[in-house]
Write the structure tokens for this entry.
Amino acid sequence: MRGGEHAFEAVVFDLGLTLIRYPREQIMGGLLERLGRPVEAGRLAAAYYRTDKYFMREHPGLLAQDPRTYYSRYLERLFAELDLDLDPRRVAEMMFSQPRPRADWEPYPETRAVLEDLRARGYRLGLVSNWDASGPATVARLGLDRLLDAALFSALEGVAKPDPEIFRRAARRLGLPAGRILYVGDNYHDDAPGALAAGFRFVLIDRLPHVDCGETWDCPVVHDLWGVVRYLEEGRGGGPAAGAAR
């Protein structure tokens, strides 16, 4: 939507699990198979999804920290979802026995096309992410930096979501009033409160809508990045959409 009282002039995105993904299901699936406890890929993906939502809801900000500080707790929850009686500490040690650099992060299939489409429509694009100091290098390696007008990473800003200050800084760097900016993220509990408090509008991206995580979201929900384009095309930024139960 490019005109009217609620017109957006910029779209700002979260990074991990919004624009890019890590092949964790494949890595864990291979490890479980070696341990003689294979899990079907769809079931494993659903368990990761529900575990993510639990930690996002009950421990905001935790998943942005060094995984070594919480990973055994995360695996304990994941294995409970899968009914696996594995020792989470032992498996965590196995997972960290070999370095797994963030170079393995990759864009979702539609990421580049959507960013290019939005730029062609005249939107300014930004990034606000709870990420360590490797953020700029990760984005550059994936070729996404050339599509962004501003990119803010919590480790470099000294402030993290859900603190609205990191969103206010993004608005200043884009040179736009907050009310003209749409923020898109996958983590309601880290993303929505800070974005809304800063004056942004918010859309949640939920890539597994068929999996029930027991939450109700009072915001518009899309299921891939093309859904953001459709949201803008339909002019739905003029008012809040009905909440979606998951």
In short: Strands lie at 10-13, 20-21, 106-107, 124-129, 150-153, 181-185, 201-205, 216-217, 221-222, 244-245.
